[in-house]
Amino acid sequence: MDVKSGQEPLLSRKEDVVGCGKKRPFWVSSAKVILRVVMWVIFITWAAFIFLYPSDFVTNLYHKWRQATEGTLFGITGSLFLLFSGPILLIAILGSAYIVLAGEEEIHEYEKSSKFPRFRLWTFPVLVDGPFGVVSAAEMIGIVLFTAYVVWAFAAYTVKNSELVSCILMLELAGLRLGMIGLFCTAFLFLPVARGSVLLRLIDIPFEHATRYHVWLGHLTMLLFTLHGLFYVIGWGIEGRLARELMDWKNIGIANLPGVISLLAGLLMWVTSLPGVRRINFELFFYTHQLYVVFVVFLALHVGDFLFCFAAGGIFLFMLDRFLRFCQSRRTVNILSARSFPCGTLELVLSKPANLHYNALGWIFLQVRELSWLQWHPFSVSSSPLDGKHHLAVLIKVLGNWTGRLDRLVSSASEQETETERLLQRYSKLTASVEGPYGHASPYHLTYENLILVAGGIGISPFLAILSDVLHRLKDGKPCMPKNILIVWAIKTSDELPLLHTVGMESIFPNFSNWSLSLENHNLLWKRGCGMSVLVGTGNIIWSGIYLIVSTVGLVITVALLDVFYINPYQVTSWWYKGLLFIACMAASVLIFGGLVIGLWHLWERKTSSHECEKNTENGTVKQNEPNIHKDSGKEQYISTTLYGQRPDFRGIFETMSDRWGNVDIGVILCGPPALQTSVAKECRTQNLKRRGNQAIFHFNSHSFDL
User: Fold this and answer.
1) CA-to-CA distance for 146 and 141, rounded, in angstroms?
2) For residue 30, what are the contacts with CB-CB under 8 A and spacing of at least 6?
3) How many CB atoms lie within 10 A of CB 617?
4) Exposed e or buried b for every residue in 182-197, given b needs 16+ CB within 10 A?
5) Euclidean distance between CA atoms 75 and 182, whole angstroms
6) What is the number of other CB atoms lying within 10 angstroms of the CB of residue 29?
7) For the whole model, what pTM was predicted?
8) Which of 35, 287, 492, 674 has the most C-beta neighbours closer than 10 Å?
């Protein structure tokens, strides 16, 4: 379905309200600038040091640093941790302060700087077909830099080894260098999957994009580690000592057997994560991916404590995020209501506390224990945070085994139970566990005056949240830039149209539109209870920052105590054992020091939300608003055209909007299958490349998630 705006701007705003954000004090702006400069300096220095590490100059600096810090309390381990892992942790800590100072003024800053349309690296698609999918200019730069680093590092090490006479020794040294390069890649591997990480919020990368970066880094890392092991195996096989070397577990030096175990765990995760295997058997992919614990622990045993410090920073941030997600998911969340649509789609409304914030392009991970205690599935949020402080809604398309069982559970409820009281009694037992919400730190859909939303099937879900969010903001006079919104919705049958009524436009603006669609669905009532936990990295940034700082300090204290009272007095020298102790210190600092902060955070949550929970209990139940169906009245603000049997003509649509809206920035947000992403990205690129001075610039943003 193609829903087009009329000639006049679809949405009107109050000029005296929007865009006049509250001016921040000078010291806040100055502190933000200073923090931003310091973080960039630290990151560029750290990245440059890693990139140039294979060079003789940086290698000599590294050896001098090791010699200078060898006699200190923390020894070589502490010096390497400070050099390779310390910068990323320091950036995360400074980033927490920066986000606190930034607040919600980003929209206002963008309004001041967006008078003229311009291209942006993150939204300009460069590659639209190929193994990487749709790749923006910024992502392409990242791919080129990583590729250049791997090629440069391997070439530099090869030149150093070229003087060797023995081919076997050259093979083993080549394997050693590939392992070192893979270890540096591991430093980045776990950063994208720390869903609530301050780093992702700092650079405003949502987890659906970050997951793709994790996939790319995973392929690169496992390729390097596989070649690392293969080169050694070939060399050992030629010399006839393969079995002995594979089973070797040295105390001083690299322990081979833990490396074999780590590589086997990594290979199993790698093979089952390939698209063909993952789509056929998601459960196999999900369960084997839990072997990351084996992979990391035996990697630490393989290389020892000080070499493990090359990648420890990213792994530590992931451990912090994973423990926080574990604590959040322990709480069971009542499902306030469930609605079944004729098109095979479910709407679940979950209870949440008022102090848990999210934006309209958020995601959650959902587990229903009545179906499975282990399976977690990601769903896009279909409600706006302005729809209500105490609930959050998701739309679920019935496609696989898990969603099919959920649909049958909801459908059987509506058939077997007819009385409201019996429903409440029966279904108060049906609960969910939630991780999230995740997503962009800033609502970037509010930074475009002109939006084209392209959805395929259930991909309409986040755009319903966007529409509701925009309408609420206009009604309440909150910052909101969109004036024109075009929705292109590709659906197979008209059975999907009732999903539009989940927005409730008539209840927000009674005269907004003249919907005339019939709606048939089952609407169930559930007992209201306290909502999901606010213990999430994307939640309260102050508590997230305290959690990060205290856990990091706790790691330093734990390692110091271990050195003072155990390692140094007893002269522990085994590399693998010290690697095990170091990763144990990482886990202990997260559990003990981080757990203390989480406990205080939980108490704060209970104190601030107790009043809300009491209110919910007094209210008893909540009922979903029934859609108001209006007949033709007043002027149409949506002109809708339904096309069956053909794909949307994106070239015609984009050219029409470019001519109509003129020389402006147009945000194109897509949620749909890969084929639809390719078509839309290709058209955005084509329109931008042939653009003239008085035509629009199309900014491609993908909200699709492929796990």
Assistant:
1) 9
2) none
3) 12
4) bbbbbbbbbbbbbbbb
5) 24
6) 14
7) 0.86
8) 35
Q: What are the residues facing 667 on neighbouring strands?
A: 451, 699
- Alpha-carbon distance of 30 to 23, in angstroms, equals 13
Q: In what order do the strands lie in the sheet with 2-5?
A: 638-641, 2-5, 484-490, 450-456, 665-671, 697-702
Written as six digits, the tokens of 640 are: 């809708």
Cα–Cα–Cα angle for 33, 37, 42, nearest 5°?
150
Contact 397, 341 (CB under 8 A): no
What is the C-alpha to C-alpha distance for residues 571 and 329, in angstroms, rounded to an integer? Answer: 42
The tokens for 504 are: 């409730």
For the stretch 71-97, pLDDT in tens is 777 888 888 999 999 999 999 999 999
Give the 3-state secondary structure of residue 521: coil
Instruction: Tell me how far CA of residue 308 lies from CA of 84, 216, 326, 551, in angstroms.
Output: 10, 22, 25, 19
Distance of CA 222 to the CA centre of its chain: 22
Residue 43 to residue 369: CA distance in whole angstroms: 42
CA angle, 392 as apex, 389 and 397 as ends, to 5°? 165
Q: Across the chain, what does the average pLDDT equal? A: 80
Question: What's the angle, vertex CA 139, arms to CA 136 and CA 140, rounded to 5?
Answer: 85
Residue 504 · residue 468 · CB < 8 Å: yes
What are the backbone dihedrals phi and psi of residue 433, each rounded to the nearest 5 degrees, phi first?
-115, 145
- Reported as type and span, the H/E element at residue 455 is strand 450-456
pLDDT tens track for 377-427:
888 888 888 887 778 888 888 887 888 888 887 776 555 554 444 444 444
Among residues 462, 458, 392, the alpha carbon closest in space to that of 676 is found at 458
> Bigger pLDDT: 674 or 622?
674
Question: How many angstroms from the chain centroid is the CA of residue 83?
Answer: 27
**CA 483 – CA 63 distance, rounded (Å):** 59
Phi/psi-derived region of residue 334, left when phi > 0, alpha when psi is between -120 and 50, beta in every other case = beta
Give the DSSP letter of residue 621: E
CA distances from 489 to 3, 445, 528, 627 (A): 8, 17, 34, 20
- The dihedral sign for the CA sequence 535, 541, 546, 551: positive
pLDDT in tens, 202-250: 887 877 788 889 999 999 999 999 999 999 999 999 888 899 999 999 9
Closest listed residue to residue 378, CA positions, set 326, 318, 327, 437: 437
Q: How many CA atoms lie within 13 A of 39 on its CB side?
A: 21
Residue 326 has, within 13 A of its CA and on its CB side, a CA count of 10
User: Please, are residues 688 and 119 in contact by the beta-carbon 8 Å criterion?
Assistant: yes
C-alpha closest to that of 547 among 204, 89, 200, 236: 89
DSSP, res 368: E
| C-alpha to C-alpha distance for 217 and 219, rounded to whole angstroms | 5
pLDDT of residue 611: 60
**Percent composition of the chain: helix, strand, coil (DSSP 3-state, to 5):** 55, 15, 30
3-state secondary structure of 203: coil
Three-class SS of residue 461? helix
* Residues 333 and 351 sit within 8 Å (Cβ to Cβ): yes
